[in-house]
Amino acid sequence: MRTATKMPKLTIAIDGPAGSGKSSLAKRVAQILGYLYLDSGAMYRALALKALREKIALDNFLTLDELARDTHIELKPPTPEQEAAGSKNCVFLDGKEVTQAIRTAEVAQAASRLATIAGVREILVAEQQRAGGGGGVVMEGRDIGTVVFPRAELKIFLEASPEVRAERRWKEHQEKGETMTLAQVLEEVRERDRRDRERKVSPLVRAADAVLVDNTAMDVEETARLVVMLAREREKELARTAGREA
Ligand code: DC
User: Fold this and answer.
1) Phi first, then psi: what are they for 140, rounded to 5°?
2) Which of 14, 39, 40, 52 should be mutated for ligand 1, with most atoms under 8 A from CB?
3) C-alpha torsion sign, points 210, 215, 220, 225
4) Would you state the pLDDT for residue 59?
5) Which atom of ligand 1 approaches the CA of 109 most closely?
6) What is the mean pLDDT of the chain?
């Protein structure tokens, strides 16, 4: 009698620059596959929010290391209502919800600066590895395929032109009633790109085995279909390998 092969659960790493559509893509792929979705950038943002609130200078590496050690950040799936309103992960900073508070341009810039600190990264990476270590997860960020899960079974490097990325971010700001101009958002995106790609520790680079997806002219559904197809292929390959080894 033939028994149904149980499909293995993958770890999917999605990396890319600001505004490349990682969050929408990762969330949709996780939803289709029934996987856990984790937004690693939210952890850097939550810590940055705490540093801003406590007025810690963002070049005070020692204090920021200490802050990271003394901070508890938790990512939780959104409730169905929050999901319908477009929420990503619900983010808790030392037990208090900061899901909305971390989504400002000021926090984004501070997160990008804080993310250059090796000690801070070490602490947050360990936390990300713990949170996603069980597999069946789609994690998005800048160093997921290179540092957090270098053995991820599927790695995507998502790209889009800076202009399109800035426009996507600008629309998000508009929806929230923020008054940044498109030119200001483009400058913000370019500055973050520069810092994220040029920093010494875990810069944003495409892992050698990552699939490059440029979604400048693709919408979320199209991109998600592509990634889900790649994931199904990887699941089958792994199931075949496991079958041969059994
Ligand atoms: O993905 P995001 O825009 O929410 O991330 C905010 C900042 O956090 C980003 O500019 C760089 C940093 N970050 C990082 O260095 N590594 C990650 N894995 C995720 C985010």
Assistant:
1) -115, 150
2) 40
3) negative
4) 92
5) 10
6) 93
